Amino acid sequence: MSKNPEFVKFDKVDKSYDGKVLVVKDLQLDIAEGEFITMLGPSGSGKTTCLMMLAGFETPTHGEILLDGNIISNIPPHKRGIGMVFQNYALFPHMTVYENLAFPLRVRKVEKDEIDKKVDKALSMVSLNGFETRMPAQLSGGQQQRVAVARALVFDPAVVLMDEPLGALDKNLRESMQYEIKHIHESIGVTVVYVTHDQSEALTMSNRIAVFNDGKVQQLSDPAELYEKPVNSFVAEFIGENNTFNGEVIDIDKDKCKVKLANSEILANPISVKSKGEKTTVSLRPERALINPKDKMDNMFTGKIEEVIYHGDHTRVRLNLLGSSEFILKVPNSTSNLELKVSQDINIGWNSLDARALDPK
Amino acid sequence: MSSEVKQILTTDGIPLEVSLKKAERKNKIKAFLLVAPLLLFLVITYIFPIGEMFTRSIDDKMITNMLPKTFKKMESWDGQELPPKEIFSAFYYDYKVLVENQEHGKLGQRLNKEKNGFNSTTKRLFRNIKRKKIDESASIKEQMIKVHKNWGKVEYWQAIKRTAPPYTLAKYLKGMDMYYAADGSITQVDEDRRIHRILWLRTLEIAFFVTVFCFLMGYPIAHLLATLPMKYSNLLMICVLLPFWTSLLVRTASWMILLQQQGVVNDFFVMIGLVADDSRPEMMYNKVGTYVAMTQILLPFMVLPLYSVMKTISPSLMRAGKSLGGTPFVAFWKVYFPLTIPGIGAGCLLVFILAIGYYITPALVGGASGTLISNQIAYHMKTTLDWSFASAMGLMLLTGVLVIYWIYNKLVGVDNIKLG
């Protein structure tokens, strides 16, 4: 069976709640069959609205949503066959774990034996066998979360939607659940649309990430590209850490441009700047700047250490560099034989390729 | 070693338990002082009156105190044959004291309730004592039988014996249309005189249907309240509470204006041609009026507990139900409805218990066929002044409510009630 690259399709979808503000603007998004796609963005960026439209709880103001080639805008939620994991799990508190899982099967009039088999299979998938008779209130947050995942998968839906499902868990549990959900996805090959505002969660789990802001998809790409090659300053800012310089392009070449800052000049990689005189924000990942680089780099400057913060696996150093005192360096602790002291001067270098000249902030 | 393990000491060497008690004692006293005024209030306004009601309802000490010697002697009398002469003379001396204190009339009336004809029987004796016709040195028994032949009948003496216990359940039996027959057995009153049983049944019926109507009307309102946006739900909440803030009497009176035969509702019916002008239906002074007015008045008591429960039900549960494949009805019936049961229980119990003891509304709009047991209680309090009977019926009502509460607890469980 060949995978359908347009299994779920948002076709020019607009959504407005009050007729004045567009929450989702001209959304064009294709989701391939079996893909794990994450909608990532700050709150109010329209990502949850997209999910609710796909689930059928909101209707698009304009445009169509297609599932496997069929327009679903007029199909009520219960006929869409889309599984959903809710933010607060939404387990039915008056039913046991078994009854919760059996609910989607019972409403589909599945035979009792079949229900037992499927519930058992779904529970073993989230390693919760033996919890059938428990009530949701008797489970820990992580267990409730797993039951919610199992319940969304038990009726073999074509698509599973997850609306910030790990938001209520503590950090360690969240991380282990991330892997668990990822592995479940890999083993059963269901299409997952995942919504989160946690960028590390998105990077860990997804095949592709759609970064939402202001009702629009800012960038849609795989995690590595998203992190390494953000296409605009919002994405650069939102994903990972970022050092920025605001300036003006004074010279531009094919793969290099010269940016004039307040009182110095740097070389950068022109991404969204086209011509001289344009304003730009240059973005540089902290780990791309090196201390006392051995090789020759095309940006070499000296900065003064303002603050040294120990983070366990790495040390963060805040520098005063090129007129900005917010320049962050990440130094892995394996190489921290360096003596880093406050108010010490150090040499910093980076390649112009890693300094991406993006749209001005 | 083991004894050291048993007793844990604080750093100062005081046993931990002692130290803890000491630390907590102050808090306990403070907490008690805080609730003490309320406790006192409850005792004075609730527990004490109920105790008072109870003693009043079973109190039958009057005769017991009037005929002390007689009842002392009667202890050894089996009540089968005419009593021995000691009892006659004991009664005679008791009665003589009453005559001196001018209390003999009350005794006659009270005994007359037990056995017809007692009043004249005692009056004859009173006149003879007054005229000093009884020779105390001769046989008192024979003289009394000579005064009135009833003294020679065993039934009259049995009637006296029945009044001996200081307590009686007669008032409770009366509340259930029963009484102690002459031989002491419990007997039902004649069929055409059984008014209380009809009232009890009607009270239960009206309370039940008012609860049902309140539920049917309150559930959708509560659901709207819990799900509408704040802007509208506040307005709706005010609409629900506004009647609540209006005086009960005003509300009942406005129902009278609406429901009377020349009232607004009837005028409207005539106007739209639903009924003819000369055959306006009677909607007041009967059960209809009681139903309509009580349902409206008790509706907030149903809406508020339901609302408070529905407010806590996350909307994502209904969504989950739908996304898992349940039709809106299935999602409602299998997910939403079971979660509102605590609110339904609380609302129904509240409305039912309030309705069962409702007084003003049925009194004003109920007429003859729409009055409840509480109106009967009030009637005996105010008109016949038979307070002990009113107390007995009040306590029967209270017991009924407690029984309903107990049944509810068995069926649903009181822990499942949620008032807010």
Description:
The complex is a heterodimer of chains A (361) and B (420). Chain A is of the alpha+beta class and 361 residues long. Chain A folds into 2 domains: 8-233, P-loop containing nucleotide triphosphate hydrolases (Rossmann fold, 3-Layer(aba) Sandwich); 241-358, OB fold (Dihydrolipoamide Acetyltransferase, E2P) (Beta Barrel), CATH 2.40.50.100. Chain A contains 8 helices and 20 strands. In chain A, the strands form 4 sheets. In chain A, strands 6-7-8-3-9-10 form a 6-stranded mixed sheet, with helices on both faces. Chain A has a 5-stranded mixed beta barrel with strand order 11-12-13-20-14. In chain A, strands 15-19-16-17-18 form a 5-stranded antiparallel sheet, with no helix packed on it. In chain A, strand 16 and strand 17 form a beta hairpin. The mean pLDDT of chain A is 85. With 420 residues, chain B is mainly alpha-helical. Chain B is built from 20 helices and 2 strands. Chain B has helices at residues 2-6, 16-58, 61-66, 68-74, 85-101, 104-114, 118-130, 140-147, 154-162, 170-175, 196-227, 230-245, 248-259, 264-271, 287-311, 315-323, 328-356, 360-365, 373-382, 387-411, and strands at 178-180, 186-188. In chain B, strands 1-2 form a two-stranded antiparallel sheet. In chain B, a hairpin with a 5-residue loop joins strand 1 and strand 2 (186-188). The longest helix of chain B is centred in the first third of the chain and has 43 residues, at 16-58. Chain B is flat, with a radius of gyration of 32 Å. The two termini of chain B are 53 Å apart. The A-B interface holds A 55-57, 76-78, 80-84, 86-88, 90-94, 103-104, 107-108, 151-152, 155, 161 and B 314, 316-317, 319-328, 330-331, 334-335, 338-339.
* CATH domain topology of the largest domain in chain A: Rossmann fold
Helix fraction of chain B by DSSP (H/I, runs of at least 4): over 70%
CATH H-level name of the largest domain in chain B... which superfamily? MetI-like
Number of helical elements of chain B: 20
* The level-1 CATH class of the largest domain in chain A: Alpha Beta
Q: What's the architecture of the largest domain in chain B in CATH terms?
A: Orthogonal Bundle
Strand content of chain A: 25-35%
Number of helices of chain A: 8
- The H-and-E topology of chain A, N to C, reads as EEEHEEEHHHEHEHEEHHEEEEEEEEEE
